Amino acid sequence: MAIAKMKKLTLLAEHTNKEAVLKSVQEMQSLEIIPVAEVLEESLLNDFDTSASRHLSNDSQARLQDIEYAINYLQDYVEQPGLIERLKTKKEVFSLKELESIVESADVDALLEQVSLKEKQLNNLDEKMKDLKQEEEFLRKWRALSFKSEEVSHFRLMDVLVGTVDKEQSEALVEGLRDNGRIYYDEVYRRSDEVAYLIILPKTERKQFDDLVAQYSYRELTYTHELLPEDELYRNLTEQKQVRGDKEKIIAEMKKWTSLYRNLELAEEYYYNLSEREKAHNLLLESHHLFLLSGWIEEEKVDSLKANIDQTIGESEVAILSEDIMMKEYNDVPVVLKNNSFVRPFEMITEMFSYPKYNEVDPTPLMMPFFMVFFGMMAADLGYGMLLFGVTLFALKAFNIEGSMGNFLKFLYTLSFPTMAFGVFFGSFFGIELPIQVFSLQDDVLEIMAFSVVLGLIQLLYGLVLNGIIKGKQGQRASSYVDGYAWFLMLIGFILWVGGAMLLNMPLLTQIGIGLVVLNAVGILVVSAISNSNKALGIGLGAYNLYGISGYVGDIVSYTRLMALAVASANIAMAFNMIIGFLPPIARFTVGVLIIIALQALNIALTFLSAYVHTSRLQYVEFFGKFFEGGGRPLTPLKMLEKHVWMEDNNNG
Predict the structure, then answer these.
(1) For residue 228, what are the contacts with CB-CB under 8 A and spacing of at least 6?
(2) Rounded Cα distance, 167 and 276, in Å
């Protein structure tokens, strides 16, 4: 159900055609190549060298990394189209041959060298600017100094010194200089961490001075510049201006590299494709003249792949054999989900949980109706739904959004309909109660909770029936009854029991319900014992299975979150509206408009996020747990990058 039928394909051809075959396979993007030695009988491998193809050239991978680095580096400099323009622009479509022709005609090495040269120039300018900034900081501190040390070094009677001391020690140093009485000092500058002084003293006092400053962190100025600090500062600022100008010229030149940037993007596509083919070489078997390739492929794409290979190298040059999947291979076969365009966006919910195994069912179409109902009930506002509908419809129609983001928008677009429907059902429009409603989110909380439980019971019963059907088809008849049908009938029995005794006062209905419960509880014990070679162990397992009734109680209670979130969202929106209603009329229709938009936007975001998270949880824990195990993996074919361009789809032959 909604899982594509797979085939195992084996291909044999001459060495001379190996690269052409791999290109054809990559063009189709539908065949997952697997290690041949792991799937063929040992007797069939005698003529092949299982280690002959274990060579992986690092050249293309290294080139790809260089290209990726260059693209990432240029993103900050090359002029890029705006977000709106990017969303509106469709990717170009290339065939593999066209892409290779363009890239091979371009000198990728020269492009990379050009980028590397500019990077080095900018790095050098940045380093130079860093040094100039440090020098500027030094010169600004000493710009008041009007002489150089060599100009006063020849005095015979006096020593003229310039130095700094840590700020916390400056007062003690000054106190020592004052006590001497024969030493002149003057403060040159003061910073948060240090103080600079000009000191003039008789040469006869030098020893006493040296003894004094030895107690402190005094550092004598070392000035190596040719000009005075003021003149050197002017020269420094002039150089900084020149460096900034040089940098701006280089950046202005790089901004115009749109053609170079595009060529690098195409080169990234090319070398990614090449590196993927090189990795595929390691999965082949080779003899002196032939090579063998094997892999998984969807049955419906086998003919297209054969046609493409035949067209590329000729039908007589390659032998292709497709085989049906054997039961022992089910755990190894990759899975491709196949759903219509309406269901496909909901595959993301299944994929986040787990892919089904090949012999399981795809739970996506089974889960989708419940997901829509539960999400709509939790969001439950006509205004919120209309807003979601309008935004997603506009985005899908106005912009060219593809891939996973496009699927997510379609997912939200679909969910806007149940949100609007339940908004009408509960009579809520941006927190304002509508005159027509089935249930009120303020007055009918208990009724809505009961409605939530009923929806939950429907999903649980459906899941148990699915369990019975699926395991029955898999030949697990005992498990089909014990884990599926028996619990379905027991829950029906409990419903009849409670309904007949507490709601309808119908003893016959109550007795039928009790009978179903008892009969199937005994049935679980009996079938568990019969299906197990150890009868005592079987009865024990059956009893443990019956203990699971507590889990069903918890499952049913979990569905009350449908009511809780619906009521919470509506009441928060109503509270926001009341807050604005308390404002004076002038404020209400001026600043109040902005406030209510902000508050409602916050509630919308929280409502949709909560509805998404909790609806997913109900599917994963309460529903999937009844019939779906998962543990499969998606098909990972030899494919192309398609990051910057689309490649031609040849799957239609």
Answers:
(1) 145, 146, 147, 148
(2) 64
Whole-angstrom distance, CA of residue 363 vs CA of residue 371: 12
| Sequence-separated (6 or more) residues with CB below 8 Å from residue 343 | 2, 364, 365, 368
Residue type at 303 in one-letter notation = D
Helix (H, G, I), strand (E, B) or coil at 295: strand
**Nearest of 360, 365, 359 to residue 338 by alpha carbon:** 365
Provide CB contacts within 8 A for 4, sequence distance 6+: 298, 299, 300, 335, 336, 337, 338
Residues 6+ apart with CB under 8 A from 645: 91, 92, 93, 94, 99, 265, 266, 269
Q: For residue range 272-301, what is the model confidence (pLDDT) as tens digits?
A: 999 999 989 888 888 788 899 999 999 999
Q: Report the DSSP beta bridge partners of residue 428.
A: 433
Distance of CA 226 to the CA centre of its chain: 58
For the stretch 400-456, pLDDT in tens is 888 889 999 999 999 999 999 999 999 999 999 999 899 999 889 999 999 999 999
Cα–Cα distance measured from residue 496 to residue 456, given in angstroms and rounded to the nearest whole number: 16
| Average pLDDT for the chain | 90
Give the whole-angstrom CA distance, residue 291 versus residue 3.
31
Q: How many CB atoms lie within 10 A of CB 359?
A: 15
The single-letter DSSP state of residue 324 is E
Of 392, 411, 348, the C-alpha closest to 619 is 348
Q: What's the CA gap between 153 and 434, in Å, rounded?
A: 94
Q: How far apart (Å, rounded) are the C-alpha atoms in residues 631 and 544?
A: 25
**Which stretch of DSSP H or E encloses residue 278?**
helix 258-281
Taking the CA atoms of 276, 282, 287 and 291 in sequence, report the sign of the dihedral they define.
negative
Alpha-carbon distance 444 to 438, whole Å? 9
